[in-house]
Amino acid sequence: MADPATYRPAPGEIPESPGVYRFRDEHGRVIYVGKAKSLRPRLSSYFQDVHNLHPRTQQMVTTAASVEWTVVPTEVAALALEYTWIKEFDPRFNVKYRDDKSYPYLAVTMSDEFPRVQVMRGAKRKGTRYFGPYAHAWAIRETVDLLLRVFPVRTCSAGVFKRAHQQGRPCLLGYIDKCSAPCVGRISPDDHHALAQDFCDFMAGDTARFTRRLTARMKEAAAELDYEQAARLRDDIATLEKATEKNAVVLKDGTDADIFALAGDDLEAAVQVFHVRDGRIRGQRGWVVEKVEDVTDAELVEHLLQQVYGTDVDAGTASVPREVLVPVLPPDVEQVQDWLAGMRGARVQVRVPQRGDKRELAATVHRNAEHALLLHRTRRAGDLTTRSQALREIQEALDLPSAPLRIECYDVSHNQGTFQSASMVVFEDGLARKGEYRLFNLRGTDGEGARDDTAAMHEVITRRFRRYLAERSAAGDVELGLGDDDEDAPRRSGPVDETTGKPQRFAYPPNLVVVDGGQPQVAAAAAALAELGIDDVALCGLAKRLEEVWLPGEDYPVILQRSSEGLYLLQRLRDEAHRFAISAHRRRRSKGMTASVLDDVPGLGPARRAALLRHFGSVKRLRAASVAEIASVQGMGDRTAAAVVAALSGGPDGSGAASAQVAEPSTADGPAGEPAATSGAPELPTGGDDVRAGMLRA
């Protein structure tokens, strides 16, 4: 017996959507199929203490070796799909129908002289039209009862029909106009057959024709002032609109198609396919593929069709449907159709669904593909064994003495050289430590920003490790990991400043530094480390175009396998650093769009700025004012007024003495002339004016 804990999915992996789940044994056979209004609580209930479960459930969960699920849009869809898979797999632990009945269908006996509408179960009969399956028999009877107002087709049994014919008197339905009473000759066989055909057409989805017909008759009755008849027709139209329940899992009669969906990015994609035969889902398959070459979605679809149907042909199990529904057409769709038609022996249509039930089902397949990709990424990122493998692969590829338990990644973001920002993200043991993230506002040697990306990378590495050296020296070279072990203490990565009680944010060095870029960025970072005399921190760069890993001083990159867990971890680092840098840059740019020339005047806070603008009306008038006039404003003094005049004398752009004064701020977190990096919090700091100026000024 297996321990359910060995295959229990993490609660966060299970969606809260309606769906159908399957338990499989160690040989891959489906042993139980179930449905749920919300998959997460239902599946979690199977993994409680085994002794609290029903004996049969205990046996099922200990026999199973894995569990999988499929997301569907509605509970009714989950019910229909559950039935399909119970009939398909015949799981040993599913409860059998004690009355040996299957799910009910709405059937119309079109082969009879007077077709009859009824509920049917079991094997299908020739000459009978079927609609469904339905969730419950009462749902069919409700639908039929509604539709009999518009399509008064016979519903009575053969015995009742014969007795009414012999007596010459119809049953109750004939008297209340819910049956056209063919038993007593009120309608001819041909007309009744046409009425039954209209009923079938409506149930098959051709609803608009009948709605238009009744709407036209309703308007005619209203025009003739026959409001009673118009009201009845209005009610009939409402009846048609709510008579049938849409089901995205079960399609119309005769639908024979494979529906494909893709969800992914530039590196990998999840593929899902639903196999629909005779209007019902007969199977589902899924893959997560690595994009080992630069392909478009159209080319990926073409390769996918070749793999799916070509493999089936090789195995002697080819089953090509009449329709292949794809998210995007392959580049040479005619050639693909001819290839598939040759295997099927008949015409095959490859197309993108545009509307109706097939598009709804394609959306369901796409949601399953998105969830499969999310599940794949979550398991790769959260699995301890996988993370350990990734760190070991990085250690081996970069020839490191030990696994890089702490990795820092840096990226630079700007808009044509303006609002230059750099990010530092931290991963420890393969997981993101967002509390350790930092932002840097780049200024360059002249205070106007770095001249290019390599200079920006040199600056940010220099500033980060200069702080590391300063804090390490101040802490007396305290070893890593020393400090408060109280679980309630705030998380920190280094020793504590005994004076302020704050954690020394940069006293913890990384085992590996990763920069976003290729050989030039790596060379700039290596030069910064060499200038500071740091030789115990490994360095590499990840170039996005070919995902190459560059090492300092090397003419050729290190190439990791595309399926490598080590490369996957480096990609996550790079993408997270890029996201964090972009977010910081956008915040600075957005705030810079509304910045005032008065923002950086020393001693001029929000209240005084507002008072000046109220008094003078505009910055233009304020610029023309003298020191004495400015000092006359309530709350202003001669010194502050002189600072305002000095700031405004620099020109309309606001550059001048005030800007020079904030170009080299000194903060409590860093030495003079070294603007402190900000934390990874989503909002900008709201401390003193010197800190805020350090954030806003490039």
TrEMBL record:
Mind telling me which Pfam families this protein's record contains? Answer: GIY-YIG, HHH_5, UVR, UvrC_RNaseH, UvrC_RNaseH_dom
Question: Keywords for this entry?
Answer: Cytoplasm, DNA damage, DNA excision, DNA repair, Excision nuclease, SOS response
**UVR domain sequence ranges:** 208-243
Give the main localization category: cytoplasm
The residues forming the signal peptide are none
| Keyword set includes Cytoplasm | yes
Where is this gene product found? Cytoplasm
SMART domains, per this entry? GIYc (SM00465), HhH1 (SM00278)
- Residue ranges annotated for the UvrC family homology region profile domain, each copy included: 259-525
Q: Which residues form the GIY-YIG domain?
A: 16-95
Give any GO molecular function from the UniProt entry.
DNA binding
Q: Which GO terms describe its biological process?
A: nucleotide-excision repair; SOS response
InterPro entries, A to Z? GIY-YIG_endonuc, GIY-YIG_endonuc_sf, GIY-YIG_UvrC_Cho, Hlx-hairpin-Hlx_DNA-bd_motif, RuvA_2-like, UVR_dom, UVR_dom_sf, UvrABC_protein_C
Outline the segment boundaries, as ranges, of region: Disordered: 479-503, 654-698
Cellular-component GO terms for this entry: cytoplasm; excinuclease repair complex
Q: What does this protein do?
A: The UvrABC repair system catalyzes the recognition and processing of DNA lesions. UvrC both incises the 5' and 3' sides of the lesion. The N-terminal half is responsible for the 3' incision and the C-terminal half is responsible for the 5' incision.
Report the sequence similarity comment from the record. Belongs to the UvrC family.
What binding partners and quaternary form does the record give?
Interacts with UvrB in an incision complex.
Name of this protein: UvrABC system protein C
Please name the source species.
Cellulomonas fimi (strain ATCC 484 / DSM 20113 / JCM 1341 / CCUG 24087 / LMG 16345 / NBRC 15513 / NCIMB 8980 / NCTC 7547 / NRS-133)
Q: What is the lineage of its organism?
A: Bacteria, Bacillati, Actinomycetota, Actinomycetes, Micrococcales
Q: Point out the gene that encodes the protein.
A: uvrC
